[in-house]
Amino acid sequence: MTKLAIMGAMEEEIEPLLAHFENVNVIEFANNKYYEVSFNGLDIVIFRELLGDIYFGEHVLAEKDGERYATDSAEYTESQIRSIAEYAFNVARTRGKNLVSVDKANVLATSKLWRQVVSEVAAKNPDISYSDMLVDNCAMQIVKNPAQFDVILTANLFGDILSDELSVLSGSVGMMPSASFSSSGLALYEPAGGSAPDIANKNIANPIAQILSASLMLAYSFNLLDEAQAVDAAVKATIVAGYRTGDIATGEAGEKIVGTKEFTDQVIAALA
């Protein structure tokens, strides 16, 4: 929980800001009003399609007319887009019922198809607040006002970039869990940053992403929601108690900088 104090010359300046916070406490002192607010941080899910886009198109690096040239082709099918869009809308229904689809429909044909198909899926889910956003604007909005996002749905390339940008908001990519879902129901859960072989066996890796990936597995593959929430709460309790791996240490008083094993032991103890 983070607390802020907000001051402004006029109430008209303050009111739009207060709409973004809960637990607003008004304090009057010396003929001035002080607004104390608290917020619990960010909770954003990004859906990145993994089977299409430029990663699976044709890639050419060659020479022509005496100079080097390169081409990369991006492809999408309607079924690929519809599959992940339907899943994203279903998850949005269990959260804040707010979904933003990110594309580059003002330039790319694949994004034009993306927007058409996602709009069709949105029409069948009228209870979900839905909007489109161009990827360059989304990249800016994540920095400017990340709290506006709940569920982000986007293509493979854009999702690769935006998910890394979002990881910075938490302080480290080591905080970010991920899940790859298939239409068959099978899923792969792993830290968003991958395996990090360069720091293997050094007891310095942040285990939070791995632990929270297991929490996602409990929730989405086994429908063990209480158990998943217990894991999430244990991670939060460990952080609140001041335990940090080196990548998220800030030097604040009360921090206890520990290794991978020690942090994990604290999470396990919090679960007991």
What is the gist of this entry?
The protein is an alpha/beta fold. The protein has helices spanning 11-18, 78-93, 109-123, 135-144, 156-169, 208-220, 225-240, 260-271, and strands spanning 2-6, 22-29, 32-39, 45-48, 59-64, 67-72, 98-103, 129-134, 151-154, 177-181, 187-191, 243-244, 256-257.
Folded structure, characterized:
With 272 residues, the chain is α/β, with parallel strands linked by helices. The protein folds into 3 domains: 1-40; 42-168, Isopropylmalate Dehydrogenase; 170-272, no CATH class. The chain is 38% helix and 25% strand. It contains 8 helices and 13 strands. It has helices spanning 11-18, 78-93, 109-123, 135-144, 156-169, 208-220, 225-240, 260-271; strands at 2-6, 22-29, 32-39, 45-48, 59-64, 67-72, 98-103, 129-134, 151-154, 177-181, 187-191, 243-244, 256-257. The strands form 5 sheets. It has a 4-stranded parallel sheet, with helices on both faces. Strand 5 and strand 6 (67-72) form a beta hairpin. Helix 4 (135-144) runs parallel beside helix 5 (156-169), helix 6 (208-220) packs antiparallel against helix 7 and helix 7 (225-240) packs across helix 8 (260-271). The model is unreliable at 1-7 (pLDDT under 50).
